[in-house]
Amino acid sequence: MSTQREVRVAVAGATGTVGQRFICLLSAHPYFRLVSLNASPRSAGKAYKDVVRWKQSVPIPKNVLDMVVKTCDVDQFGDAEIVFSGLDSDVAGDVEEGLRKAEYAVFSNAGNFRRDPMVPLCVPLVNPSHFAIVPHQKEALGLKKGYIITNANCSTTGLAVPLYALERAFGPLETVMVTTMQAISGAGYPGVPSLDILDNIVPYIGKEEEKIEWELTKILGGLADDQKSFDLHAKHPMKVSASCNRVPVVDGHLECASVRFARRPPPSPQQVKDALRNFYSEAQKLGCPSAPEQAIFVHDEPDRPQPRLDRLFQNGSGVSVGRVRECPVLDLKFVVLVNNVNLGAATSSIINAEYAVAKGYV
Amino acid sequence: MSTQREVRVAVAGATGTVGQRFICLLSAHPYFRLVSLNASPRSAGKAYKDVVRWKQSVPIPKNVLDMVVKTCDVDQFGDAEIVFSGLDSDVAGDVEEGLRKAEYAVFSNAGNFRRDPMVPLCVPLVNPSHFAIVPHQKEALGLKKGYIITNANCSTTGLAVPLYALERAFGPLETVMVTTMQAISGAGYPGVPSLDILDNIVPYIGKEEEKIEWELTKILGGLADDQKSFDLHAKHPMKVSASCNRVPVVDGHLECASVRFARRPPPSPQQVKDALRNFYSEAQKLGCPSAPEQAIFVHDEPDRPQPRLDRLFQNGSGVSVGRVRECPVLDLKFVVLVNNVNLGAATSSIINAEYAVAKGYV
Amino acid sequence: MSTQREVRVAVAGATGTVGQRFICLLSAHPYFRLVSLNASPRSAGKAYKDVVRWKQSVPIPKNVLDMVVKTCDVDQFGDAEIVFSGLDSDVAGDVEEGLRKAEYAVFSNAGNFRRDPMVPLCVPLVNPSHFAIVPHQKEALGLKKGYIITNANCSTTGLAVPLYALERAFGPLETVMVTTMQAISGAGYPGVPSLDILDNIVPYIGKEEEKIEWELTKILGGLADDQKSFDLHAKHPMKVSASCNRVPVVDGHLECASVRFARRPPPSPQQVKDALRNFYSEAQKLGCPSAPEQAIFVHDEPDRPQPRLDRLFQNGSGVSVGRVRECPVLDLKFVVLVNNVNLGAATSSIINAEYAVAKGYV
Amino acid sequence: MSTQREVRVAVAGATGTVGQRFICLLSAHPYFRLVSLNASPRSAGKAYKDVVRWKQSVPIPKNVLDMVVKTCDVDQFGDAEIVFSGLDSDVAGDVEEGLRKAEYAVFSNAGNFRRDPMVPLCVPLVNPSHFAIVPHQKEALGLKKGYIITNANCSTTGLAVPLYALERAFGPLETVMVTTMQAISGAGYPGVPSLDILDNIVPYIGKEEEKIEWELTKILGGLADDQKSFDLHAKHPMKVSASCNRVPVVDGHLECASVRFARRPPPSPQQVKDALRNFYSEAQKLGCPSAPEQAIFVHDEPDRPQPRLDRLFQNGSGVSVGRVRECPVLDLKFVVLVNNVNLGAATSSIINAEYAVAKGYV
């Protein structure tokens, strides 16, 4: 990618936890150049270092310390071409819609447009092919360059990668059951009160189960032939059941999944492991610099992946899978780990944008 | 039970974590009188307080402080009628077999005899009816009073109670899927190293999944008509799939379960909640003093049960259920909490023994 | 105390974490009868069970479930004689002042009046003798029955008990250094965000060090001869230095203290242990039912007290001390554990009130 | 350092937790080349990846995966010039003594030789000047190249750096009081059982207080004029009192310290902060590649340093200080954070060795 021209980018919601992670990743990016930090009016006009409650384990990047934060008004994003949005969902809808109208390419981590029938819900290692709906999105809204791409919910993202690898190797899945154990960082800051989670588990995360159950159908499904709508996996209806739990882990969502394939007989555990190991995504082929070298790492040890030991593998840009074995009820069960703050959030948006650049959408 | 005569009991493995819990519960028992503490030769001959590494949140009961510990040799249990065994499985087999031959009634928390075709695997709120095989067990071994009763694995126990309540109300279950999040106390002391579990989850517990998958068929199944063997739920084959995780919680196993009933249409979530709430076990009817007032507490709040808030309900002798809802794949899903050190271990053994006393088996 | 008449009490701030603890303790109290639950207007008019976010490990007491919550307006406390205040400090000042004027005896856990020159700052195992200023407080304000008693900050309370026992046995202390490790429950709910404290320590608690350093002088000091003012330990100036940390522990503040006595030579570790063990407070002598049987438990084991093992000793109404040994810099060092939600908060208020009843102040 | 020749090194105790950290650091080192992994006979003859229980959050370095582990017999270290020892103290004494006799330069993290009157106890940012005793050590033992250098206990190391910076700027310290809150990784693996530390603190670490109190005098003291003995800070006797606690934190020891200077008046907090910020060690001046860019980072925020946020600063090779303020008892108090597994262990040994190379001791 050495010949890639520099692309100017902004971060909306720059002071929040997702915004902080965007800043960490973008500060070291080979061709994205951070030109604008945007946040609430409360922070605007002040140096970034004076308004942020920095919660990352690395210091604030030096080039960002004294950048003056601006508001999220649509005229405050300067000459950025791409806006990464780490906004909270209560404000993301209006801001992102305004930015799109102002002809920005918006890559959003917020949930507001995930169910929009013209907006790709894009896990970059899975379905960047959904970018093909972007021309329709722009045309329908009378725009030249403006569009919105969302990435998926963090727990959905982790599961979507191996499920897609399995469908590509063995054909459609009929049934997916998953129980998640999700890290506290997934709830933002201040997020989960410590009295709720120390020496405890909360077996409920508002709307999370519905997100997983629905988003997977959009992500794993295809586009209609006219490339103007999503088919929601309708050719091969897929039933998904999720149970979501919050656990006392800082980073890294662990998920216990069981699946049933349409094809009989189903593949063996060894065939599944081979298929996961060999999976190579379009984003990797294109050389997206934030994509992992290996999309799916498959552990042979019986007790892996584990959040603390495996969440930083490849800077959290891939997923780890382990315990691939037969399921007495469905066909196969396995364990997935995704780094919710990296691939599960900011990293996905950035790879999506890298894909857009490589494909000429920016 | 005020007229119940005193029954003399011993604890084998008295210094271990399960043994400590037995001692706490027995010291306050209305009619079991603790007459013997038995442990390894290393501890024998010394005062209990000088050899135990006490890890309970209540002090050592005063009457036990200076009791002299004896070995587990079969002649060291004095005039006890019942022996509660909290022994580790590496020694439990020989000791318990010896005690049975010496005509003791042995109530064991160890796993060694759980698959024995003549030994009841007994969750006291579920299948004390399996005691009916005890005459056969004694006869086959030529014994008058000696027999072994085991209680189930802690995570199995918690799930067995609501599953049994459902089968009693709605007929046989066809399919059970469960993902467990198990507390560290389930692994004993020293058990799980802190470096393995702080800010982490281990998605594996050796042989635990196999235990759940097999033990449920024995517990929920019945006895053959001649009361000399277990039918392992064979009349209505039941498929069980378990995924087990160790989590950073001190006490209390949380389990996310999904079930499918044989009967069509299945009961509604409201019918299931009613059935669980109305469930009343044989042990409760008999007035066993350690049985809970309510066997299954059903939460209506969306985020319960939680280990830290609910594990001490009724001194941990019942189970808590919440989030009863439809499952997009099977019929219904719900969350179960069991106190693994109480109902999941020592309390079950004690209620089993109370049942045996009430029914004349002691 | 069997002949003590029933005393009607109210709880202001009944839905907060301290209020919840008051309710737990008062529901089982031998002679305090809970007649009024008062909270913010938002909760008023509704059943307690419908407005509280209950965070205790025991269920809401049955007699409280359906009590209708009232506001904290001064005419809403009915015929209560005593009001226990678990109010937040931002509202406690006005409410408590109003209640005093309305002739209620107010026992407050809030900090607002702790530095008031007419209000006792009372650790019930230490300085209930300060109640002697109450007649002056009432007289100065022209009241017949109304007055305010505060208990101390939780970390101050734990340290004050052994320090007082030492001063009573060996004369004045010259120097006290203490480093605290304080539980998250001390910060209320939602309190400390989990992202701040999981796998972490925060070496700072706002104003906590100043509280310990000042409150100890008021508590350990005496009254002026005319019983109209506090002497703040002025006869023997005492220097106190505190360093406060928040740690990932649910309940129980642990404190590492070093002290220097005025008297030379100082007492030996063994003399100190004896003095702490033999300490018997006025509240115990009077038979206050919530006072501990033993005020200070002294551990001989090298690694105690520990929060999880020792915080429930005597229902958290006493303090635990361990590791009494010589200090290479000052005279002696030791470790103190106090249950911050019991003796460190609600229990202290209740024993203070019991003392007031016993002494005829109510 | 680009012209530095390659230096061949071995790791003794390669499979332990300190050994694993040595391997991580050495695999990326600019001129140390890892030529030998040595461990117990149980591991010898097998590939490293097959015998290690890897507990690091980064994968095993690729070049090490298949290295064949050898025993710690003195003839098994091949042509290494330096041996880094991460051995447990029960075997370290004999092995290290043997290696020294065999003319290896031994840099040990074990405690066995820390009190040896000829062996430097060397915190690399503090007292590499103690290397001047090495010629005496070799001569006294009749050796040409063999010698032993130890680094300090992890909690001592963190405190020694700012104390040394203060003594260099303001002259001798008279008194040091410190309370430590130490991470579980300091106890190795399996180390602290999770049942002892989850939701808990253990106010005791065996021999740790004695280590801090004594080691500081050796480290902060000088050499006698003949460079044949250590003066143990004898010219200005220094009293040190330590209280040590184990806390539920994975990595990073936090320490609350108070100090008194000999000089009157003492420096102000601002002077202290300036002195700490300006401190620049000999190892940094020499360009040791593993030395931090900044030895001491001083926080102005009131609530820092914190283990989780600050332990990875500069890869854990510096220390963080915060909350510099006046102490009501001594002169000044502050908080120190040291990464116990990096600067507190392997990193110190490696910088010590880099210093030895730069100074011609290797």
From TrEMBL, chains A, B, C, D:
The first-level EC class reads oxidoreductase
* Keywords from the UniProt entry: Amino-acid biosynthesis, Methionine biosynthesis, NADP, Oxidoreductase, Threonine biosynthesis
Question: What Pfam family does this protein match (any one)?
Answer: Semialdhyde_dhC
CDD domains documented for this protein:
ASADH_C_arch_fung_like, ScASADH_like_N
- Domain named Semialdehyde dehydrogenase NAD-binding is located at 8-134
User: What is the designated name of this protein?
Assistant: Aspartate-semialdehyde dehydrogenase
Pathway the protein acts in: Amino-acid biosynthesis; L-threonine biosynthesis; L-threonine from L-aspartate: step 2/5; Amino-acid biosynthesis; L-methionine biosynthesis via de novo pathway; L-homoserine from L-aspartate: step 2/3
